[in-house]
Amino acid sequence: MPTSSLAPSIETMLIFQLASIMQRILLTTLAATAVAASFTPAERTQLTKQLNAWLHEFGAESLPSGVNASQTEELLTRLASANKAIAGLSATQPSATFGLGPMALYTHEEFKVFLGRSFNRGKRVLRSADVDYATLAASTATDVVDWTTSTCVNPIKNQGKCGSCWAFSATGAVESAHCIATGSLLDLSEQQVVSCETKNQGGCQGGDEEEALNWIAGTNGGLCLTKDYPYTSGTTQKNGECLKTCAVQPLAVGSYVETPGEANLEKDIVQQPTTVAVEAGNDAWQYYKSGVITTCPGDESDHAVVALGYGAENGVKYFKIRNSWGTKWGEQGYVKLQRGVGGKGMCNVAEFPAYPKIKGTPVPKPAC
């Protein structure tokens, strides 16, 4: 049957699509060039100094995928945008300090994409709809709890450019729980979780820390040590093959318990470090350096971390959070989120708290 003369050929459609893509690239390039060309000599000198200092501190490996250190004009433009965002944050959130951290040269869209593929809300979307967060009590504690001063928290780790926050959140909580039960702090393999927990997870494309908790305690019967199964996905950005050659360490943990709400999270933290899902794909997290974050945009959770303390700083109550972006981010890898706001908590920190049950009698107590 002959083709209608009115129907465009496949070749024509491809040409139109290619032209559209090229047009978008051209417009983006022209916009960046226009911004770069608008720098005064003094601004260019200052930005160049900032860029060189940033590259010296964080290295080219901290640049977004597809961007390299030789793209000077592009990097200066990104740096100028970062400075503008930091100025805005500093004006609206005086309880925190913001600056050029390891992810400062990501565009807002690139940062959200990175976070968006790190965490999978999964079935919790439905469970969240069944919770009336407005009725949940806010945290009111006046004491201080900080598990980082105990012997049951490992040094900060770095997930790199793999969307594996869910694995780091789960192993971090399990490491501490096992230590609380036995007095022995193990360094457990996040790589084993990323590579081998494939039934409910997407490896570097995101996952669910609660499902990981159950897999570690149940299906897998424990985890190997990092020294026997080291983390590589942060640089390869690949899940890696599941290896069966390491010795799985039995752990004194059981299935997880989920306890929504700030008051419940407060009680959880007294007992043990707890996994939480947060809304991190925003400027406050991207440029955070220290202090207490007091505003988040109000989007969905996109990142999994560990809550392991609470207290107050300069009159502002906070939850202390362990992140997995290395020690050069935030307060040596930690962040404080305002406490006492009720509902889902600041940046959704109280939306999905969950901890692994501890088997046996706890040994150490949290230090204050």
Shape: globular
Give the number of DSSP strands: 9
What is the N-to-C succession of helices and strands? HHHEHHEHHHHEHEHEEEEE
Which ranges are low-confidence, i.e. pLDDT below 50, for 5 or more consecutive residues? 1-34
Name of the top-level CATH class of the largest domain? Alpha Beta
User: CATH H-level name of the largest domain... which superfamily?
Assistant: Cysteine proteinases
Instruction: Count the domains.
Output: 2
Which architecture name of the largest domain does CATH use?
Alpha-Beta Complex
Instruction: Write down the oligomeric state.
Output: single chain
Tell me the Rg in angstroms: 23 Å
Major sheet? 7 strands, mixed
What is the strand content? 5-15%
